[in-house]
From TrEMBL, chain A:
Chief place where the protein resides: membrane
Entry superkingdom: Bacteria
Organism: Acetobacter conturbans
Subcellular compartments: Cell membrane
Pfam families, alphabetized: LrgA
Keywords: Cell membrane, Membrane, Transmembrane, Transmembrane helix
UniProt-listed InterPro entries: LrgA/CidA
Record-given protein name: CidA/LrgA family protein
TM ranges: 25-42, 68-90, 96-117
UniProtKB/TrEMBL annotation, chain B:
Keywords from the named record: Membrane, Transmembrane, Transmembrane helix
Sequence intervals crossing the membrane: 24-42, 49-66, 78-97, 109-131, 151-181, 193-213, 219-245
Keyword Transmembrane helix tagged: yes
The organism's taxonomic lineage, starting at the top: Bacteria, Pseudomonadati, Pseudomonadota, Alphaproteobacteria, Acetobacterales
Protein source organism: Acetobacter conturbans
Name the UniProt record assigns to this protein: LrgB family protein
């Protein structure tokens, strides 16, 4: 588990460092995400699935840690979200345009993205995994 | 009302003199309220509209008012939760790597959907605010609201919006997408988790992605891609779109 956490932190550090040095418009953790995905794929290409647990950073511990973090991803937005209270006066002053734009634009964005994706995907849909697993699908 | 909050404040000030205690108190409260929110959502048959993030934000905000605690103090107390957003974002790499075959197979479709979704989000956000008579700053702050918060703030600073307002819009938009996204798309006859995940990542970033990630690993992978790529695309197209709209 410590190694797994170290892996995540190191890739975040690497992503943030790259962002700083190259002045990229994308935040460090997002760069770290792409780098870690690339590193995992590269590693998996070279090792047999059976050896995976033994030596590399691509361990079951990393899977379970990431599963745990992603399962409570919503919680992590609460501290920043409470910051809404500091913006209440501005929000209230423009309540109608803000509410309409947030709602309309978000729904439109969702619908257009999913619709284009749906129309442009020609192979059969990925198998659905709807059955209830207690919120721990991942 | 004022006397009640004063009493609360007195109790709070008496029993939480140590800064450490304060941090522990707000951490416990945040975790507890979020846990209750999750249980409530499960109790309600996993209804997406019973969003635990919204529940926790509302409850904590009320608690801050009741104890007369400034937001800065609260944020300082629960900084560690906010810090974990970084590693959690990196952790999205695992579902992404796990479903890489699906991702590469739908790369052309994804590119199209990404461009269409980004442009729609930005343009419709600006236009609706302007049509309904919202101020110029509000319209500009609305433009990058679908993007993950750090990128949205960077864009809004560049185009002259208000960063704190953009952050508020990003979170509210994410909550809206999480609450009604799945039902809306199912009504359109879209059941593919690739489309659901990508749409959540592009239109609602992290909070909507959290909702999809609970439901399906493939959805989580596409939501992770949506967040990352939409940030990139929006940073590039917002200045362009403003050039055409505002002249």
């Amino acid at each position: 588990m410590p190694e797994a956490f170290l892996t995540l932190i190191l890739f975040q550090l690497l992503g943030s460092a790259l962002q700083m040095v190259l002045h990229l418009p994308v935040p460090g953790p997002v760069i770290g995400m792409f780098l870690l995905a690339a590193a995992l794929l590269w590693k998996r290409k070279r090792t047999q699935p059976a050896d995976r647990a033994v030596s590399s950073f691509d361990s079951p511990a990393l899977s379970s840690l990431s599963r745990a973090l992603i399962a409570c991803l919503g919680l992590l937005f609460v501290p920043a979200g409470v910051g809404l209270v500091t913006q209440l006066p501005v929000l209230a002053a423009n309540a109608l345009p803000i509410a309409a734009a947030l709602f309309g634009s978000t729904v439109l964005g969702l619908m257009v993205t999913a619709f284009v994706m749906h129309k442009a995907t020609h192979d059969g849909p990925a198998p659905e995994r709807i059955p209830d697993t207690g919120g721990q699908v991942l | 009302m004022h006397t009640i909050s004063h009493v609360f404040h007195q109790i709070y000030a008496r029993f939480l003199p140590e800064p450490n205690m304060e941090s522990l108190f707000w951490l416990s409260l945040t975790l507890a309220v979020f846990a209750v929110g999750v249980r409530l959502q499960i109790r309600l048959g996993r209804a997406p509209w019973a969003n635990p993030v919204l529940f926790a934000i509302g409850f904590v905000a009320l608690a801050l008012v009741a104890t007369e605690t400034p937001y800065a103090k609260y944020f300082e107390s629960v900084k560690i939760i906010n810090f974990l957003l970084g590693p959690a974002t990196v952790a999205l790499a695992i579902p992404l790597a796990d479903s890489i075959r699906l991702v590469t197979r739908s790369l052309p479709a994804m590119t199209l959907a990404l461009l269409a979704g980004s442009v729609t989000s930005v343009v419709s956000g600006i236009l609706i605010v302007m049509l309904l008579g919202g101020s110029h700053e509000v319209a500009l702050s609305m433009a990058p609201k679908a993007v993950t918060t750090p990128i949205a703030i960077a864009i809004t600073t560049q185009i002259g919006g208000i960063p704190a307002l953009t952050a508020a819009f990003a979170i509210l938009g994410g909550i809206i997408a999480a609450m009604i996204g799945e039902a809306t798309l199912r009504r359109m006859g879209i059941t593919d988790w690739r489309a659901h995940g990508l749409a959540a990542g592009i239109a609602g970033s992290g909070i909507a992605a959290a909702q999809v990630a609970q439901r399906d690993p493939v959805g989580a992978a596409f939501a992770a891609l949506g967040i990352g790529l939409n940030g990139l695309v929006t940073a590039l197209i917002v200045p362009l779109i403003l050039y055409f709209i505002a002249g």
